[in-house]
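TICKET #2291
ISSUE: user wants both folds in one file
ATTACHMENT 1:
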Amino acid sequence: MKKRITEKTILAEVLRIEGSKEILEKYNVPCLFCPFALLEANNLTLGQIAEMYELNLSGLLKELNQLKKKK
């Protein structure tokens, strides 16, 4: 995954990046490890999740892209 992470990036793509779960937890992305969330991860974008749970999307994207640059 070379492209930048955006609000249109599917959660499942982000979860493949080592260290991303810690950032997602920091921003209170819920239920990262429950079975139902794993099904939704293949369909929901970061933008949709941020809107549903009123998360700081710009901060989340910034940290995820910084992490990705290090990998």
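ATTACHMENT 2:
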Amino acid sequence: MSALIALIDPNVFYPAILRDLVMQLALSGLFRARRTRRIEAEWSRRLLANRPDISEAQLAITKALMIRAVPDMRWSRIMKGLLLTSNCPIRMTALAAAIGAQADVIVRKI
């Protein structure tokens, strides 16, 4: 049986402790992690805004190490044309990306 596919929401990649936990679980083979360029941009932007002590060069190194550690954490496409009710707790972009990745779950911080 293959590991389930998990779309990782940006709020899980920042803070660092959650990012490290998700990376360790993905390395263990518990699940196959997926992300989108939008997810990557969102957590990166938030990190740089909240942590002025971290440079873009340092962040680029972190991202490269993440990809090297879990090369299967590839990009997912965002599906278009979804309609959700306004009270849906999952953002449209996350749901669309999960569908595009054929994800079994969306990992997000509440």
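RESOLUTION: both attachments delivered.
EXTRA DETAIL ON ATTACHMENT 2: Residues 37-50 form the longest helix (14 residues).
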